[in-house]
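Re: your question about HD domain-containing protein

S., sorry for the slow reply, the queue was backed up all week. Below is exactly what I fed in.
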Amino acid sequence: MNKSIRNSSPKGNDRKRRCDLSTHYTAELLPKEKVFRDPVHDYIHIQYRIIMDLINTPEFQRLRRIKQLGTSSYTFHGAEHSRFNHSLGVYEIARRICDKFVRNYPSKEPGDGLWDDRERLVTLCAALLHDIGHGPFSHTFEKIFDTDHEAITIDIITSPDTEINRILQQIGPDFPNQVAAVIAKTYDNPQVVQLISSQIDADRMDYLLRDAYYSGVTYGNFDLTRILRVIRPYENGIAFDISGMHAVEDYIVSRYQMYMQIYFHPVSRGMEVVLSHLLKRAKDVYLDEQAEFRHTATFLTPFFKQTWTLKDYLRLDDGVLTTYFNHWLDEKDPILNDLAHRFVNRHPFKSVRYTKGRDDATLERMSALVERMGFNRNYYTAVNNSYDLPYDLYRPHQATTRTQIELVQKNGSFLELSQASSIVSALTGKVRGDERFYFPREITHGDEEAGINLFESLSQEFSAFFENDEILPTQQTGGTL
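Result:
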């Protein structure tokens, strides 16, 4: 896979050159506006034919068959929404922002730092297509098969073999590269890039509201209407009127809560561990010449062999993998069979929190006990760490930096968000999350249906290492490790 794109946008601060370049990007309007009814945004408005054409491509329709939240639906049963839903939502927020900008902050001359509406088309297309490269159970799949959804997104947009690319080419021969450059964060206009990817962008604003809605929680709710009222362009990107500071503050807190309560939920991660080990075992069995694989997994074969192409990738979705999981329920390999049963029938691994470094020896001893109880530690234990940085300010000396959120004061000067909000200041630069050790639930609970525990003594020894779902310090477990 080609993970790089040619960015043909002009470099530097030559705003006049950039504006001249975009003059040929025009698109046909639909005879009548079309709408999608949406539970989060009410209506999603489609005004350009190219947007409708992109939605109708096989590559975009595939997103209907990929869940937005992966294994989270095994914890929050309503979270069955798709990447398709989300992508339309990001488009709609970007469209509303463009409308606000052209009405309130239209550019009068090149380089004035205001909004040039000739950027609308590339913005809307990038917003719509930003997740086009996601695969089934995307993040887990990526780890096992070494794929990169962002690189694949760029490849789908720029490859002449896709319908997406052919439609974008109708706007201009270099237009696909321009859209891809926005997603790659190399596009010349930082306003456009930050609308799609920053610490407060159309992508994050939609997935917080959408994921909260479908998960049945209120953590992710914030005042989108107010944020869209106070957002504004400036030379180096986007900013917010200081009068809307509390709405932006609420957004940061909502994002923090969603990560802690939804995205990092230990049960969802327990299902993710089962899925990861299931795919790993399938790959290992397939590559083992001595093992018998009764059911062919045709669409996965190129990924087992690491010979896959973009065409192979686009054949995959959640339904394809789930079908294979059902086939593997009948496989002779006991580990593959068992892991498939656990995933299909929702039997997540149990977990306890641990402290990296301090508890390394304890984890080794616990893993050994798991093996003594008859479980292969390579497929029945795992360490899983999930961390997020809720907000950070610009740190020029770091290898990777973030675009900080700027507030515009009454005199026109800028103030970084954490300088104005004590709540955001408390979250700034502080990584949040935890590290967990996963293992089969029956190790501590036995066979609950049969009411027996075949490894009661080993189970008691195992359970002595933790209390309140957290591994105890070594000195409290009795003995030297």
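Residues 266-387+434-471 form a domain with the Growth Hormone; Chain: A; fold (CATH 1.20.1250.30). Residues 1-23 have pLDDT under 50 and may be disordered.

Happy to talk it through on Thursday.
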